[in-house]
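Trying the structure run again after the queue cleared.
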Amino acid sequence: MSLKVPLAFLSENKQAEVVEVIGGRGLVRRLYELGFIPGTKVRVISSNSPGPVLVDIKGTRMALGRGVTMKIIVNME
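Done. Tokens:
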């Protein structure tokens, strides 16, 4: 069974698959350009609330604000 949740809800060192990005056209386009495309695997490296979430996507590490990670919906396996 799979569970769809915002990326912000993933624990450290957990991996999930991007399902969709919710938001305006500009945000969706920017996140797609960064690699957050449905079907892509993403792993949370560090998630210290209330700070940014450090993720690894396609071998690239990046820090995203918690608000942005609430708009990236992933499928937990």
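The chain has a mean pLDDT of 95. Worth checking whether this holds up in the mutant runs.
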